[in-house]
Amino acid sequence: MLDFDTFLKTDIRVGRVIKSEPFPEARNPAIKLWVDFGPEIGIKKSSAQITSNYGPENLVGQQVLGVVNFPPRQIGKFMSEFLLLGVPDEKGSIVLLKPDQDVPLGGRMH
User: What is the pairing mode between strands 31-36 and 73-75?
Assistant: First the structure.
């Protein structure tokens, strides 16, 4: 079991996708994302295998949730700086977790 203090060490924040493009070099179909997490954290980038439910053209402007305090991870020639959060649908394809209304960028999940 995970205690609450350990859970609080996971820094999950809301950000807005400001740029999105295909990632054809990835082993599995993926999209590169640049997300603005507000003035405290700034812009971070990530790669996500979400092409079954999303295209780069419909992600810009959406608010998303991401873990911002994991170490960066090299994915091919792209450095992923945060973990985008989602859950699988009935087919196993990822659906993004996001607020159901606009909230301030950088807001921490409680």
Answer: unpaired
Do 61 and 17 contact (CB within 8 A), yes or no?
Answer: yes
Q: Would you list the domain boundaries of the chain?
A: 4-96
Any alpha helices (H) in 19-97, and if so which ranges?
none
Q: Phi/psi at 25 (nearest 5 deg)?
A: -75, -15
Task: Give per-residue pLDDT as tens, 44-99.
Answer: 999 999 999 999 999 999 999 999 999 999 998 899 999 999 999 999 999 999 99
Report the distance separating Cα 107 and Cα 66, nearest Å: 11
- Reference 36, options 89, 110, 104, 109; nearest CA is 104
Task: For domain 4-96, give the CATH superfamily.
Answer: Nucleic acid-binding proteins (2.40.50.140)
The dihedral through the CA atoms of 59, 20, 38, 67 has a sign that is positive
pTM assigned to the model: 0.94
Cα–Cα distance for residue pair 94/71, rounded to 1 Å: 22
